[in-house]
Amino acid sequence: MRTDKRVGRQLIAGLIASAICAGTATASALLDHPEQRLREAVDAMHAGRIDQALRDLDQLVHDEPNFRLAQLLYSQMLATRAGAVNSSFSSGDAPVDALIEEARLRLNTSEPPPGSVPASILSLSPRHQHALLADLPRARLYLLENRDGSPQVLADFYVAMGKDGYGKQVMGDNRTPVGVYRIINWLAGSGLPELYGAGAFPTNYPNVWDRSLGKTGYGIWLHGVPDDTYTRAPRSSEGCVTVANADLLALRSYIQPGETPIILSDGTSWLPAAEAAARRATFLARIESWRAAWSAKDTEAYLGFYSKTFTVDNMDLKAFSQYKRRVNGAKRYIDVTLQNLDVYLYPGEDNLVLAEFDQDYKSDSFATLSHKQQYWRLESDGQWRIVREESD
C-alpha cells in the first residue's frame, strides 16, 4: 500500500500536477458515462488504490479506445509503475498539453449548489420544456429542464469551443460567440462531412444583438466529432461547440428545433432558487408595466421605458417617439397581451436583459400577432430601459 501511494503521488506530479488534484464528481448524463468512470479511476488513484485505478482505466480504454485522455492517463500510470516516467511529459508537446487542459476542465468541475438555478435564465415560458446552457470557460454544457419557469439541471457534458476561445466578433476569428441563441434544425451525420460526427444542431447566430454590434460570421453549430475521436481538445473548432457523439445523440431527444434556446456564456453563476424567483418577479413586473402603459394609451409613460440610446428600424428615440405619439393618438383603444415570455440575463454584457415573447396587438383599426425581442439595459438612475427591440 505504501508503494501504491508513492506511485500515485508520482503520477499526479508527473502527469497533470495540480490540474487534477481537486478532481470531484459532478452530475453526468449516466452513471456509467465515460467521464464519470474516468473520475472514479482518479479517485481510486488519489486513495492509493492504484491496482483498482489501473483496472478501471484498462476497462475504460477498452470500451472507449478513442478517449485519448483516458489512454494518456492509463499509459502514464503504467509507465510510472514501471519506473519509466518521462520528466518532460507535460511541456512543449501541444497535443499532450491540450489533453492536460482537458483533464483540468473535466476533473475540476463541481456540481452547482443544491437547489440553485443559473443566474442567466430569469424565466422560461412553458413552450420550452428544456434549454441548453454552455459555460464556455469551464467547457460544460448543461441540459436544463423547465420546472414552472425555473431551469433545473438534468445533466451536464464536456464540450469544446473555438481554437481562439470565446467572444466571436468577425467571420474567421475562430471564436465561439457569447449570447442567447436558438437551435433551428437537426442535421443527421449521414448527410454531413465526417468532421460533424453523429450530426449537428445549427443555431441562429448572428442574432439581433450580434447584428446591432456589427458582428459577422455564420454556421455556429452544436455538433459531434469524427468517428475516430471521443471528444475534441478544449479549444479546437472554428467557432462551433462540439460534444461526444453519444452525448449529442442523448441530447437530441430533449431538443426541439426552432424552439430550444442555447445560451453560450462567458461564465455561469448560480443563485438560490428564492433569490432567482425574486429577480424574476421584479423584471416581469417591469415588463408588465410597459405593456400596461401601452394598452392604456399612456404614451408618455410608455415612452419612459425606452432609453435615450434606443434604436429600431433606423429610428432613434426621437423619431420613434414622434411615430408612437402619432399612431397612438389616432387610436380609440389599444389592447396588448403577451404570451410565452422568456427572460435572460444576457451573457457577455453588463446589466443587459433579453425579453422575448409573442405579442398580440389589437386596436380599433389594426391587429397583428408578432414575435418580439427586447433588450433592456440597467441605466445610471437604477431603471431598466429598452435599448433595442425587433419584431418578426
UniProtKB/TrEMBL annotation:
Residues 130-265 form the L,D-TPase catalytic domain. Keywords: Cell shape, Cell wall biogenesis/degradation, Peptidoglycan synthesis, Signal, Transferase. Coiled coil: none annotated. Transmembrane segments: none annotated. Gene3D superfamilies: 3.10.450.50, L,D-transpeptidase catalytic domain-like (2.40.440.10). Residues 1-27 form the signal peptide. The active site is at residues 223, 240. Pathway: Cell wall biogenesis; peptidoglycan biosynthesis. It comes from the Bacteria. Belongs to the YkuD family. This is L,D-transpeptidase family protein. It comes from Banduia mediterranea.
